[in-house]
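Why do we bother with holo predictions? Because pocket geometry can differ from the apo form. Keep that in mind while you read this record for zinc ion.
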Amino acid sequence: MEVEILGSGTSTGVPCLGCSCEVCRSEDERDRRLRTSAIVRTDGASLLIDCGPDFRTQMLRATRQELDALLLTHSHYDHVGGIDDLRAYCRRGAFPVYAQPNVIADLKARMPYCFVEHPYPGVPQLEVHELGDREFEVAGVKVLPLPVLHYRLPVFGYRIGPMAYVTDVNHIPDSTLERMHGLEVLIIDALRQTRHLSHFSLPETLSVVRKLQPRRTYLIHMSDGMGLHADVSEKLPPGVELCYDGMLIKV
Ligand SMILES: [Zn+2]
Ligand SMILES: [Zn+2]
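The structure, written out:
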């Protein structure tokens, strides 16, 4: 299995519009972060996790463009804003989308033109699947939902084999921690150095890492408040790395 990080940035992306801090001015490519999203590729399938407003740009840069399904974590704009561009993947029929029922309801409200009886020619056709918190199968791949909280909003992370992907989180219930034992790779939210209402800060993420002891941990959904990639990387504990856009993680 391989995970390609399409984007590693928070909702604003980095650089942030109107900001002139040293991170937003950095010329290090690793400090230029599109909105958080990834492709998980197994032997038989390519699963997209979230489809934010940078999706089109991200797919043009990706090492491979095929996709079999979309798994959504929640319906904030930075995770769903690119779904209209999935039209390119609907030529052979409706594209499968998996999410919690409230996320599907949000999609129908935001993109009603995709769900009418006689859609305008060319709009994306989405085949929606509502998830419970039980394991499910997509394109032959077993996926275990990881329910977490993003302040008060229930968000789904996903575990696929020895890899877990958990974005937009500031609380992981014990019942979900139990689903996260024995990980080889943990890909997880760490917004910035200081505390935040709805995201783990770096110290909070590192305390989760100490609890779960995954073999390797990769951080996503970072803002300019994380600091420069090069500086922060030097100070991270062994086995923990900041993601950057385009990073390929072999599992
Ligand atoms: Zn987000
Ligand atoms: Zn969010």
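The chain has one domain: 2-250.
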